[in-house]
Amino acid sequence: MNNRYDFLYLFDCIDANPNGDPDAGNLPRLDPETGQGLATDVMLKRKIRNFVQTTKTDSNQHIFVQEKRPLNPLIAEACSESGLESYKKSDGSWDKDKAKKRPQTEIKTIQQWMCSRYFDIRSFGAVLSTGPNGGQIRGPVQISFSRSIDRIVTAEHTITRLTDVDKEEGEMGRKFTVPYGLYKAQGFVNPFLADQTGFSDDDLKLLFTALENAFQFDQSAARPAGSMNPRALIVFKHDSQLGNAPSHKLFELVTVAKKDGVEVPRAFSDYEVKIDREALPNGVEIIERL
């Protein structure tokens, strides 16, 4: 990869819960001081992983971090495929004392095998130091927390849920939604780390395609069809690996604000997105993918 990339991603939420907080009864996450909604980077990475896992079948596009799947056996598989000891005991556990002393040359071999197989490790990195021990990998793709442009409100709905399939009675429950929120996330692609993990230009295209379709195959009761939508993916492509401008300066060229006369936004059409192209530094190209 010969170029550095920064990108800005906008998505909105309509009568849904974009990212519930398990420490707060699954309420939508928010900044308590400003009232702005928040969504974690992990949430977006999960959508990317799910899209790639659902739509891609190539041998180098497997997903390492999947829901409800233990990771140590996958690290052990990398050891086996690389001809290295996984330090597995007869009872099925791993000898952690021996694994911790694994030589760096072996760890590098394991990491190379894992990067060649798993798209999410090439992209986001991984902690492989558990069990058989494959060390840690820093990924070239970093995504920030998403923050809503304006403050959000949380709507609370009473629902009835069936708790005993042998009885007709149910119990009352709660469901939380955000009537509307437009969220903004920022991303960065480090070409130097991309060289280390093998993250390629084809992987970059897949990453952006996944963001463009992040919610297309992710519908659920908390996020029904049409309730979560990508609205903009603005990519800043530098003509060098080092880059031609600081990331924050590029992000400041994009302004997102409510249109005149709109007090309570309820649709993306209530906002206006502007890009100050005249202030774009030399050596940086803007690519609007959405």
From TrEMBL:
Domain of life from the UniProt record: Bacteria
InterPro entries documented for this protein: Cas7_Csh2/Csh2, CRISPR-assoc_prot_Cas7/Csd2
Pfam families registered for this protein in UniProt: Cas_Cas7
Entry protein name: Type I-C CRISPR-associated protein Cas7/Csd2
